[in-house]
Amino acid sequence: MEIRKLNTLRGLAALIVFVTHFSDITNWFDGVLGGGSGAYGVMLFFLLSGFLMSYLYLEKDFTKANVTYYFLARMGRVLPLYLVVVVGSYLLSISGDNTLYSIPDLNALLGHLLFLYGESILWSIPPEIQFYFIFIIFWACARNRSGYIYLSIFTLMILLFFSNFPRIYGEVYGIPYNEFNVLRGLPFFFVGVIFGMNYKSLKVPRYLRKHWFILALCLIPLMYPDLTMITSDAKQKMWLSYEVLLVMSCVFFCVVFLVPNNNILLANRFGDFFGKISYSLYLLHMPIIVQVNNLNLSVEQKLTLSFSLSVLAAYISFHFFEKPIAKKIRSMSSDKSKQRAKQGCASAKGV
């Protein structure tokens, strides 16, 4: 069953990142919408990732066929465009052109291809890939030992808190790695997993399901460093603050559990569209903003042009590249299942 409003939430996450980077690069509104606030968009992506994996797969049998389909579906959605951007950035960088992202040598390229390191906004893809493998452990426990999922999540979150999120980064044979990015994103992924595990079983009273809970989304800009009333260092240490985790988790809970699924602001074609192109919009917008900023235009014109070109590039990428390839990759699992079924029938007839 599709939860349509999640499309809009995914699109909103990408728009938060876009606005933040545009504000930082062009100093729009004196940069008050920037200052690293794009982190809140990435937090939503990690929450969504954990939620959807848990919601879609934990009730399925932990079989080789299902795990294979899971990996093909997840990798088919993320890897093709990521690999094109990474390899394209490397080829441009070694020729002296940083139109995309700076990947200046073979070691940096290997860091990206091995999902150990990410330049600029590419940093969030290696954690996402590593989360896919962590989820396999949860899935293996889901049917008979789901309590281990909660126990391991709470234990790891406590360890991360008391260890102050270890700064694990450096180089191995010149290849950069940064596991700190994975560790700081884990709590958001974990919360998403827990929400996904309980989405179908948690019966929210009808009197609590109200459209006005959508206003919880307003809490996100209230945490922006230049807008917040918070006086603690949580506004600067966004990823390392469990206060921020609590607020973002509450926002996510309100939207997913309390806002009715037919909310017109969340369930609409506009939200569906931006949800579909959110990943390509996330990966492609930064180089476009940088190039547009070099033009002699007003900041409003730069915003209009940057947004239009980013959406156009994202749509073209999704419709003509990502979607066809993802469909082809997923079909590989279906073809293998059909072959096994035919082999099984043939064996049965032979018997």
Short characterization:
With 351 residues, this protein is an all-alpha fold. The chain is 64% helix and 2% strand.
Number of self-contained structural domains = 1
Share in β-strands: under 5%
Give the mean pLDDT. Answer: 92
Strand tally, please? 2
Number of helical stretches of at least 4 residues: 11
Structural class: mainly alpha
Large-scale geometry: globular
The CA-CA distance between the termini, in Å, is 40 Å
- What profile does the largest beta sheet have? 2 strands, antiparallel
Order of helices and strands: HHHHHHEEHHHHH
Task: Output the strand order for the largest sheet.
Answer: 1-2
Uncertain runs are 343-351
What's the helical proportion of residues? 55-70%
What distinguishing features does this structure have?
single chain; 351 residues; 11 helices; disordered C terminus
Structure commentary:
Strands 1-2 form a two-stranded antiparallel sheet. Helix 1 runs antiparallel to helix 2, helix 2 crosses helix 7 and helix 3 runs antiparallel to helix 5. Residues 343-351 have low confidence and may be disordered. The protein has helices at residues 5-26, 39-57, 64-94, 106-113, 125-142, 147-162, 180-198, 242-258, 269-276, 278-293, 299-350; strands at 169-172, 175-178. The protein has eleven helices and two strands; from the N terminus they run ααααααββααααα. The chain has one domain (5-350). With 351 residues, the chain is an all-alpha fold. Strand 1 (169-172) and strand 2 (175-178) form a beta hairpin. Helix content is 64%, strand content 2%.
